[in-house]
Amino acid sequence: MQKHILPIRIYYEDTDVGGTVYHANYLKFFERARTESLRTLGFELGELLKNEDTGFVVSSIEVDFLQAAELDQLLYVVTEIIEVRHASIRYTQCLHRDTAEGTLLCRAKVRIACVDGQKRPRRIPKLLLVEIKK
Amino acid sequence: MQKHILPIRIYYEDTDVGGTVYHANYLKFFERARTESLRTLGFELGELLKNEDTGFVVSSIEVDFLQAAELDQLLYVVTEIIEVRHASIRYTQCLHRDTAEGTLLCRAKVRIACVDGQKRPRRIPKLLLVEIKK
Amino acid sequence: MQKHILPIRIYYEDTDVGGTVYHANYLKFFERARTESLRTLGFELGELLKNEDTGFVVSSIEVDFLQAAELDQLLYVVTEIIEVRHASIRYTQCLHRDTAEGTLLCRAKVRIACVDGQKRPRRIPKLLLVEIKK
Amino acid sequence: MQKHILPIRIYYEDTDVGGTVYHANYLKFFERARTESLRTLGFELGELLKNEDTGFVVSSIEVDFLQAAELDQLLYVVTEIIEVRHASIRYTQCLHRDTAEGTLLCRAKVRIACVDGQKRPRRIPKLLLVEIKK
């Protein structure tokens, strides 16, 4: 279970009249990073749903907003899995500025639950579980 | 085919670092207004899809952004159907400030196409067509 | 410090390919509700910034996503202040379906910090503090 | 004035309950591409505003939505400047699937106007004009 790093560029769409990134948009960055960390393991969300009747929903999130990001900045989401259970995964995700070790802007704990196409809880498919735990 | 009027309040989520409403968000306001004008006629998009296998997709849009909207402002979307065909509808939608006759901020021509659940073109269901043409 | 209730209608813009509301968008609903609860007390965010050099930033948030909201649903955000300090406010916000006592979909604890126009921490202006504590 | 190409990955945040990308979000992709084409020339929007009192606002847009994009797809925005005037720029922007010559999904004509920090029209700064016209 290695750390995954995703660069994110800040565009106008991400900002608000306060001059910095709108707080809810950090959740989008974290979700892009979780998606890319799965893609790195060889899994795409669309295919998982079609072929394995498997999806993921966010069941809880805790976010500390420490410092605001600004237009044009290049950020790095550092994603780490901290627990894998039969039907859920817990992540820690940190957003850094300029480099993956740069100033910490935002830190999140995210729990996602595995569901089927009807959004009923289900076990994480084995082939995925094996790759995540490597 | 009467004019439909929908009030819209501007929140932080709608704005960008330029200090005004982010341009793509006006399209959301126009779509809320089209949705509400259908609801006024007794139709909900979710039910149309479930019960009539009918949805709508935006096929083209032309927007003139005349003056920017700002945080806390109360806007009014004035929606008018200008043409109804077998499988498409054309709208003119205008965004005004403070009242439905206030300063014109933004004007759009929108064409939506009727599709089935697989996004294939289809005729607008008769019961809907009748209400729209009233 | 009374409960504040805000109705929210779900539109296409709020949903995702999973068929329900995109998780980050609940944060927008909660923020609209905090904004409206201030407006009820006679304060607008834009005016507070211009006249009092006062803004608010979300400093932390905890959200439990219990059940997903769907297109066309009418939801109610119930907002309650649970602590007011010199430079921050803590809220509990709950999202219910159909009525303000309907099925609980989502529950959040939100802490916002008072800042000046340069995003430096500052005390909440007295005239605002008095109204909030009423 | 060369064509600029920007890859865009589709995430959950971009989609809606219809199963494809929400129509207003294509405008975000086009704007990211215009921003990156400026960055390629050595200009950042945030710096232009601070150092040159120069910004850009979208003054009109025409979009044809030909085919919908889906989750996980890799798209390419092809951006071309078709006219540069003293205080405005006109673009053609096309969104293709899989490669920059792949299936055309969406085509836009966008006109942006140059403004100062107070959103008043102004001439495009010479140093920028020179680079754009190269």
What overall geometry of chain A do the principal axes of the alpha carbons give? elongated
> Which structural class is indicated by helix and strand composition of chain A?
alpha+beta
Q: What's the name of the CATH homologous superfamily of chain A?
A: Hotdog Thioesterase
- What is the H-and-E element order of chain A? EHHEEEEH
Mind telling me the C-alpha Rg of chain A?
15 Å
> How confident overall, as mean pLDDT of chain A?
96
How many helices of chain A in DSSP terms? 3
Please name the two chains that share the biggest interface, counting residues whose Cβ lies under 8 Å from a Cβ on the partner chain.
Answer: A-C, 22 and 22 residues
Low-confidence stretches of chain A: none
Share of residues in strands of chain A: 35-45%
Indicate the multimeric state. Answer: homotetramer
What CATH architecture of chain A do you see? Roll
Largest sheet of chain A: 5 strands, antiparallel
Q: Please identify the top-level CATH class of chain A.
A: Alpha Beta
Number of domains of chain A: 1
- Strand order in the sheet with the most strands of chain A: 1-3-4-5-2
The CATH topology of chain A is given as Thiol Ester Dehydrase, Chain A
Short description:
The structure is a homotetramer of 134-residue chains. With 134 residues, the first copy, chain A, is an alpha+beta fold.
Report on this model:
Four copies of one chain form a homotetramer. Chain A is built from three helices and five strands. Chain A has a five-stranded antiparallel β-sheet with strand order 1-3-4-5-2. Helices cover 24% and strands 37% of the residues of chain A. In chain A, β4 and β5 form a beta hairpin. Chain A has one domain: Thiol Ester Dehydrase, Chain A (Roll), CATH 3.10.129.10. With 134 residues, chain A is of the alpha+beta class. At the A-C interface, α1 and β2 of A face α1 and β2 of C. β2 of chain B pairs antiparallel with β2 of chain D, so a sheet runs across the interface.
